[in-house]
Amino acid sequence: MEQVVIIGSGPAGYTAAIYAARAGYEPLVIAGSVTAGGNLINTTEVENYPGFPEGVMGPELMERMATQAQRFGARVLFDDVNQVALRGPVKTVRTLGGEVFETAVVIAATGASYRELGLESEKRLGGRGVSYCATCDGFFFRDKEIIVVGGGDSAMEEAVFLTKFASKITVVHRRGELRASRIMAERALAHPKIAFAWHSVVSQVHGESTVTGVTLRDIRDNTERQIDVAGVFVAIGHAPNSELFRDQLELDSNGYVIVHGPPSPDEPGLARHQATSLPGVFACGDVVDRTYRQAITAAGSGAQAALDAQEYLEGMAADAALAAATI
Ligand code: NAP
Questions:
Q1: By C-alpha distance, which of 22, 238, 14, 251 is closest to 109?
Q2: Given this model, what pLDDT does residue 322 score?
Q3: How many angstroms is it from 93 CA to the middle of ligand 1?
Q4: Which of 10, 19, 106, 159 is least surrounded by CB atoms within 10 angstroms?
Q5: Among 149, 252, 262, residue whose Cα is nearest residue 204
Q6: pLDDT recorded at residue 263
């Protein structure tokens, strides 16, 4: 029987593991088979994670977190969870690899996945010119013209990164102003290789075996124009990976796992910030966070989830000791 099983291995999962391991619970991190390390694995340089004044590459940051958790006794399993039973004092976690774990605590740190445009042509040409990861696929677009869809930090980061390879990048954004933070926006706006198609959406991706172009629609007057490009990078945000918990935990209308906020002075019982609707189940990181979605806030909530879990386990141990003493 495990004491703490952590599902997910982004900054939230590994930080929860570091805290739970240092508290002596020898947590098991089920890290994912292909998604281990979470979204930072697909990022280039992280410039805003405290403690790295020169910046740190996303994959290196995640490797360091994993090493730190293992140093204190966390175990990491590279497998995917496909079923959980979270009600009652003993929870069951099953993996695609056929393992079954019983545990007192589950910490859900499953993160969020990229959003798709929702076009049939996007699906058909996925991996053949349509990509969701500039660091993974940018190399294939050397001296080619491409587009990046989105107006947030991810789109700006991808566009600037892709200037290393592509000859020209057009950022396609549905509004007339960017959502991205000022520093990221300024970098992209000032770059000579980056152009902007404002108030525009992709209505069609063209190509048989690979992408040859896109049709852009101006949403103000519905006029359409076609441009020849070899690549389409989609960076329009993320949706929470909460499917696993759908029938068991309370989720909000967008699928984020609901956790208790800061305690109200009138409701001392809600003091565990990362507690979900079920006792012994805690959630942290992007699967609960529709607002901040930063590596550092995910890590912070991972620490909170582990501390909440510790309090819960100590409560269970005290109850068991009391019951034994009474007998
Ligand atoms: P985001 O901030 O939610 O931005 C998504 C962008 O995609 C928005 O511009 C949005 O348009 C657009 N969009 C959404 N759905 C669309 C659709 N169906 N069709 C066309 N456009 C669509 O997501 P993000 O850029 O992935 O960033 C997520 C979080 O991670 C943010 O908090 C961000 O600050 C953080 N982040 C930080 C860094 C960094 O600091 N290095 C790097 C990457 C991400 P509207 O603007 O019109 O809504």
A1: 14
A2: 87
A3: 32
A4: 19
A5: 149
A6: 59
**Secondary structure of 31-82 in HEC code, one letter for each residue:** CCCCCCCHHHHHCCEECCCCCCCCCEEHHHHHHHHHHHHHHCCCEEECCCEE
Catalytic annotation on 80? no
- Residue 235 CA to ligand 1 center (angstroms) comes to 7
Give residue 272's pLDDT: 75
| Positions in the chain whose pLDDT score sits under 70 | 261-271
Whether 11 is in the pocket of ligand 1, judged by its Cβ within 6 Å, is no
Residue 271, Cβ neighbours under 10 Å: how many?
13
Distance 27 CA to ligand 1 centre (A): 33
Give pLDDT, residue 266: 64
Taking the C-alpha atoms of residue 31 and residue 107, their distance in angstroms, rounded to an integer, is 12
For a pocket test of ligand 1, which of 42, 218, 236, 294 has the largest count of ligand atoms closer than 8 A to its C-beta?
Answer: 236
